[in-house]
Amino acid sequence: MSAMPLPSSDHAYSSSGKQLRVNDKQRLQMISKDLVVNGSIEIRHRFSESVAQAREDLPYGMRIYIRSLHDQTVAASLDRIKALHEAGFDPVPHIAARRIKSRDELQDFLSTAVRDYGVSRVLLIGGDIAEVQGPYNDASAVLMDGVLEANGIREIGLAAYPEGHVRIANERLHQILQDKLELVARIGLGTYIVTQFSFVPARVVDFCAMLSRRFPETSIYVGIAGPTEPAKLVNYANICGVSASIRAMTDLGLKAAQVVSHTEPGSQLEAVARYCAARETCNVTGIHVFSFGGFIKSSQWMHRLYSKQ
């Protein structure tokens, strides 16, 4: 997926490229709305209630991601994929390479998801478990297998980490991402990047700038933790490997709960919007909301933002 120009607004550029005077508040509000409308959300628990609420809160056709659960096969997500498709959304399943038990399991799942429920893209991740459960050691092994395109998948989402990875050095992490992007391009599929969330807006902005320099034609969806109680969010941060920013800020004298309470999702979204506003074109396409505090709370937060006049 290629980078998109920013939507038109009263913030314009002259033919020479010189920035013209603007109403900054209105422009930021417009960009924030676009980031939400063009974005996505991850669904977790209380599924039937969540889908009903999604119909009320979220734009028709929005991408809704279905997590890969440690204790379930990939086929166990088909009922959720079906419900989201029937509700008018674009279901995007997680494929955790190391948790797939056999090629036949993955092929059967993809065939049904694509043929019956309109799935056209997946978020392909390694799956952070110590013991590989089947034939795929990592995401690249799934890509090289050919099973995705053979079963009708047209676009691949790849994960990136503003806080780094607990077991992989940053430079190696960037090289792995580049290798996967090049592999997907050779296969002939579309691709985009979904980032992990962070508690430090400046770190997210720097990370987006780095991705833009390295991969200027690849769309980026910036991960943001939706409204969540501080203690629960700290717990998820430790699980997801994004506790580095907690440690950095607690070194300055803030307790972990205080760090999180001062980084509610609106400030994260504003930082991304300001990043986009500073560029004539921007390959940050939307946000990706992690609904740690509950899908309904997160979807209502998104609705309030994009429905503002």
Tell me the fraction of residues in β-strands, as a range: 15-25%
Round the Cα radius of gyration to an integer and report it: 19 Å
The largest beta-sheet arranges its strands as: 2-3-4-5-6-7-8-10
Distance between the termini: 30 Å
Describe the model.
This protein has helices spanning 24-37, 47-57, 78-86, 103-117, 139-145, 147-150, 170-187, 201-214, 230-240, 244-250, 256-261, 265-277, 295-306; strands spanning 4-5, 40-43, 63-66, 90-96, 121-125, 155-160, 190-195, 219-225, 281-282, 284-290. It is an alpha/beta fold and 309 residues long. The chain has one domain (22-306): TIM Barrel. The strands form 2 sheets. The protein has an 8-stranded parallel beta barrel, surrounded by 6 helices. Strand 3, helix 3 (78-86) and strand 4 (90-96) form a beta-alpha-beta unit. The chain is globular and about 55 Å long.
Topology summary:
Elements: E1 4-5, H1 24-37, E2 40-43, H2 47-57, E3 63-66, H3 78-86, E4 90-96, H4 103-117, E5 121-125, H5 139-145, H6 147-150, E6 155-160, H7 170-187, E7 190-195, H8 201-214, E8 219-225, H9 230-240, H10 244-250, H11 256-261, H12 265-277, E9 281-282, E10 284-290, H13 295-306
Parallel strand pairs: 2-3, 2-10, 3-4, 4-5, 5-6, 6-7, 7-8, 8-10
Antiparallel strand pairs: 1-9
Helix pairs in contact: 1-12, 2-13, 3-4, 5-7, 8-12
Question: What descriptors fit this protein?
Answer:
309 residues; two-stranded antiparallel sheet; single chain; 46% helix; 13 helices; disordered N terminus; alpha/beta; 8-stranded parallel β-barrel; TIM Barrel
